[in-house]
Amino acid sequence: MTHRFIDSVNFAIQGILHATRTQKHMRYHFCSAILLLVAVLFLRISALEFTVLCLSVSFVLFAEMLNTAVEAIVDLVSPEYHPLAKVAKDVAAGGVLIAAFGAAVMGYSILAQYIFPYYRRLLTMIGTPGEMSTLVSILIVVIMVVILKAMTGTGSSLHGGLPSGHAAVAFSIATSVSLNTGDPVVSILTVALAVMVSHSRLLMRIHTMREVIFGAMTGSAITIIVTLLFRNIRPEQL
Asked: pTM of the predicted model, to two decimals?
């Protein structure tokens, strides 16, 4: 009886290892879970909140495991393309998306009250850019994108090459909006829009992930630097 139980546990572990090894989204979920656990240690949330977060994470991992199992069964039954096989895989993937969305909402509801005060304080420490410094930041970002692309010899000002001009400008604007409002919710929404703009460049195969990330970092960094340089200047001077 004991050996059967141990064998069952080993088979289950093998299944988890297989899903982690073959499914990149499973690896993403585990990495997110690690980050969440680290955040929980620093934020010191209540036991009940920790339990709810663990259940949410477990449900997402469970959905991803089922999705992997469905894909394996479909590939076994229907090695060739079939519309119903596609439907089965899409529905299983949709289940994972719903679980991840629910976990995200749950995580936001619990963690926002702990994280937002620190985030608001960080935005306040950097400072609030004026209208002129915001425009200057965006112009400098565009100029730097052109210079960097000229140095690397790839792409045009806003099409292809290193760094991504769209990502740089989008994150420059998102950073400016975040600093001007000082509101964590507005900041998250504008950054989400910037991420969507950057992701579209990947979907259109105009940029690589490295080019998009470098563009985003360039846009945000330049905007923050300009704000820090001119935060002591009086508004009427800007």
From this structure: 0.73
